[in-house]
Automatic annotation (TrEMBL):
Pathway where this protein functions: Cell wall biogenesis; peptidoglycan biosynthesis
Entry-linked Pfam families: Mur_ligase_M, MurD-like_N
One record GO biological process: cell division
GO molecular function annotations of the record: ATP binding; UDP-N-acetylmuramoylalanine-D-glutamate ligase activity
Official protein name in the record: UDP-N-acetylmuramoylalanine--D-glutamate ligase
GO cellular component labels: cytoplasm
Localization terms from the record: Cytoplasm
Primary site of residence: cytoplasm
InterPro entries attached to this UniProt entry: Mur-like_cat_sf (IPR036565), Mur_ligase_C_dom_sf (IPR036615), Mur_ligase_cen (IPR013221), MurD (IPR005762)
Length: 472
């Protein structure tokens, strides 16, 4: 592993302030690489990140230059940097090795990996898959989280038998755009795509390009590897048209179409089809069913992936009785006999928020929503909102997406004028929830957070702090 980077000149393109760039830089230093870091931000802006670096690096801050690309053989790209960036394109033109932390992980882990991507449900499916695996294997989650950075998991690979990697589209762009040499190709042993819906169009441009990126890691799978796809998703055949999945499996909320292998649920029973054989594999209890249709879908994807990795169905059924709650994904952060508060900060798209509206909507539900726009369409979100939330029971946090929400809702009444702070939103929501005997305050923004917060997790932490202040 270390030999590929030892003594090599490596350019980290984007240090950032959220920790990912620091993790990559420190890992490269441990491998013996000669590291240069470039970032548009200045040293003052990057002060906290720079203080966490464990060794000497060359700093090229406050801008980028082609000279830095020319002087380094390997370019490690921060996922927040698009591959269409002029300097990344220049690196391709100059024949540089362009990679990122996810690709480094896949190319060096040396053990089976279940890779999970999709628009919604990635984190929940990843957490539950690893939870099922833990009954049989020394396993770990990796990726898309400050709690489980790819390269931190890579460092402890000798302790592990298998990993479950959550990989967003920004990390997969390089797989789609690069002709990777043999031995450097990225292909999970089991590739899971939870679903495809409108998201990140400010980055990818069109739904077709976005879906191509999601399908990219099916390209290099061989006949020993599996893919797990959502049979109910309208993009499933487009995904299969982009790459040949040697051994496709499916999950569905209804009986699978003839010829498809996989799992589906009918009422509370989950069924498996494998060739001509069909059998009942387990029964979902009321607690599992109460998670909502989208989470039952995530559960089936996780169960199928874990089973393909070697976990018996009986182990999975036993584990389902105590599924962990995943932070910031429709997380119940406060509950008493009169009030329940839900933190769904990771609903960063209209489609993600729709699932929360369907699960928690009702006459006593007050919704907090709004944030930063990413060129997404809120029409369907507005339709579902009107069916599940009473007029006057929505509190808006100001932002560019909020302006679009208000436009598509037209004259549908809100609870109050648009709020400037999250605290103001919560105070208004709690006031309105007090008129019901039993009520729910649902924080599901349906949009990103960058106008007011570092990211959606910072937004979620701040919301939880406010709940502790006003609800305890």
């Amino acid at each position: 592993m270390a030999s590929h980077f030892k003594y090599k000149k490596v350019l980290v393109f984007g240090l950032g302030i959220l920790g990912g760039g620091v993790s990559v830089t420190n890992w490269l230093l441990k491998q013996g690489a000669k590291v240069t870091v470039t970032d548009l931000k200045t040293a003052n802006e990057l002060g906290q990140s720079l203080a966490k670096l464990i060794g000497p690096v060359k700093l090229r801050l406050g801008g980028h230059s082609k000279k830095d690309v020319d002087e380094n053989g390997i370019i490690v790209v921060n996922p927040d940097v698009s591959i269409n960036n002029e300097f990344i394109q220049y690196a391709f033109e100059r024949g540089k090795e362009v990679t990122n932390e996810a690709m480094i992980f896949f190319q060096n882990f040396g053990r089976p990996i279940i890779g999970i991507t999709g628009t919604r449900g990635k984190t929940t499916t990843t957490a539950w898959t690893e939870y099922f695996l833990s009954s049989m294997f020394r396993s770990a989650m990796a990726g898309n989280s400050t709690a489980h950075p790819f390269l931190s998991v890579l460092e402890k690979k000798d302790e592990l038998e298998i990993a479950v990697a959550e990989v967003p589209s920004f990390h997969l762009e390089l797989v789609e755009s690069s002709d990777l040499p043999a031995g450097r190709q990225v292909a999970p042993h089991i590739a899971v795509i939870t679903n495809i819906s409108q998201d990140h169009l400010n980055r990818h441009g069109t739904m077709q390009e976005y879906a191509k990126v999601k399908a990219s890691w099916l390209k290099h799978q061989d006949e020993t590897q599996h893919c797990v796809l959502n049979a109910d998703d309208e993009w499933v055949y487009f995904l299969l048209s982009q790459a040949v999945c040697p051994r496709p499996w499916y999950f569905s909320a209804q009986r699978l179409r003839p010829g498809l292998n996989g799992v589906w649920h009918s009422k509370n029973t989950v069924w498996l089809r494998n060739g001509r054989s069909e059998k009942e594999i387990f029964v979902l209890d009321d607690a599992a069913l109460s998670l909502g249709e989208h989470n039952v879908s995530n559960l089936m994807a996780a169960a199928l992936a874990a089973h393909l990795a070697g976990v018996p169905w009986k182990n999975i059924q036993e584990k389902i009785k105590s599924l962990p709650q995943v932070p910031f994904r429709q997380e119940i952060v406060f509950a008493n006999e009169r009030l329940k508060v839900i933190n769904d900060t990771t609903a960063t798209s209209p489609e993600g928020a729709i699932q929360a509206l369907k699960r928690f909507g009702g006459s006593g539900t007050v919704l907090i929503t709004g944030g930063t726009d990413r060129q997404l369409d809120f029409s369907r979100w507005a339709e579902v909102l009107k069916k599940n939330i009473q007029p006057g029971n929505v509190v808006f946090l100001e932002g560019s997406a909020t302006d679009k929400m208000l436009a598509v809702l037209d004259d549908w009444p809100a609870a109050a004028p648009v709020c400037k702070t999250l605290q103001e939103c919560l105070e208004v929501a709690l006031k309105f929830s007090g008129k019901y005997g039993k009520s729910v305050v649902l924080f599901s923004p349906a949009s990103k957070s960058f106008e007011k917060f570092k990211n959606e997790f910072d937004r979620g932490e701040q919301f939880n702090a406010l709940v502790r202040k006003f609800c305890q």
